[in-house]
Design brief:
This protein is of the alpha/beta class. It is built from 9 helices and 18 strands.
């Protein structure tokens, strides 16, 4: 009798433990980090700021958290990317393969990764822009016309809200029409709208660039610029900012613009007049034409947080040159439960920054 009672009790406890374990697994799914190809835009210049051309893949050393990484693809300027190492047998018309030969989940064709740049132009149409509005439109128009045929362009404008005036397209006339249709209006929520633009850019593969034209400081955003900068780095988006002298008069905005662009591998310009605006856009176009594009598949790295990226030049002849690229990224966690063992790859980064405020999609208005 005691044996039967003990057996019943044990079975009951087993069912309770099993049920509790199932509920725990359901409420607390495993978290795995999935990192696909990491793409870098790298500018190399001498002490005078002149671009260094003709470098080879072996001239670069890529490090992630101090771990030496093997380049997977390489390109200079607008040239087609070359497959390196285990990607040498990649079918240009097929899905992208990882270093072990496996197809990457949700990946596009290899040509999609290397064809041109995706350039998002974000134009300040706030009430700061009443002066010099037409001159700014002229500078943007000239910039659009000057970009290579392989590049796709999106044109957004912002004041308090974000307006997606022209989606990503190779049709220059559509973009130019959107530029000319803009009008000046409300207060400026730059960081809110820049975050929304970054989220759009992050959905695309290949080289991703945002060019911001701002005429003044941000006075309406709820998103801190530090979160925006981290998201841009994790998404692999280079930010270039052209600002008029109005923003230059506010030291805080000047410092933020400099830090944000430097962290993402871009540059900041402060234009005193309309001639400077044209020159700044020409400099950005020149920069895009001289960037080296490198990519790699990260080796095993237990760090699931912020990962630092360092690009070095190899050899004594190159040691005095300056390298500019993004400083790191935060890998995206992919969730799956015990019932679903299929890991889904996430190509877009986690929008939540260190403080979490950048993860709120409602932080900026859209229309």
């Amino acid at each position: 009798m005691l044996t039967k009672l003990w057996l019943c009790t044990a079975l009951s406890l087993g069912f309770v433990v099993a049920a509790a374990s199932a509920n725990f697994a359901q409420d607390n799914p495993d978290i795995h980090v999935v990192v696909n190809m990491v793409q870098l835009n790298v500018a190399v210049t001498d002490k005078k700021g002149s671009y260094i051309t003709g470098l080879k893949p072996e001239d670069f050393q890529l490090l992630e958290d101090g771990i030496v990484e093997k380049p997977a693809t390489f390109a200079e300027g607008n040239e087609p990317a070359r497959n390196l190492g285990e990607l040498a047998n990649q079918d240009p018309g097929g899905p992208v393969k990882g270093p072990g030969g496996q197809f990457l989940p949700g990946s596009q064709t290899f040509n999609d990764l290397i064809s041109g740049a995706n350039v998002f132009i974000l134009f300040d149409t706030s009430d700061y822009m009443y002066r010099g509005f037409v001159f700014a439109q002229d500078a943007i128009t000239e910039f659009v016309r000057s970009l290579g045929n392989a590049d796709k362009i999106a044109f957004y404008s912002y004041s308090r809200d974000l307006s997606r005036a022209a989606g990503l397209t190779s049709d220059r006339s559509q973009v130019l029409q959107a530029v000319r249709s803009t009008v000046a209006g409300d207060q400026a929520a730059l960081y809110n709208c820049l975050l929304l633009t970054l989220k759009d850019a992050a959905q695309n593969t290949g080289r991703k660039v945002i060019v911001v034209f701002s005429n003044g400081p941000d006075n309406s955003s709820v998103v801190p610029p530090e979160d925006v900068a981290e998201f841009a780095q994790s998404a692999g988006v280079s930010i270039y900012m052209i600002s008029t002298q109005q923003a230059r008069l506010e030291p805080v905005s000047t410092a933020v613009f400099d830090r944000m662009t430097a962290a993402t591998g871009g540059k900041a310009y402060f234009a005193k007049n309309w001639r400077d605006e044209h020159q700044a856009f020409a400099s950005i176009r020149d920069d895009l034409a001289h960037l080296y594009s490198l990519s790699y598949y990260p080796k095993f790295n237990p760090n699931t947080g912020w990962r630092s990226i360092t690009v070095k030049l190899m050899g004594d002849k190159l040691k005095n040159y300056k390298v500019r690229t993004r400083k790191g990224y935060r890998p995206q966690p992919a969730r799956f439960s015990a019932a679903d063992k299929t890991t889904v790859s996430e190509s877009s980064p986690n929008p939540v920054g260190t403080s979490g405020s950048a993860g709120t999609s409602g932080s900026g208005s859209e229309r």
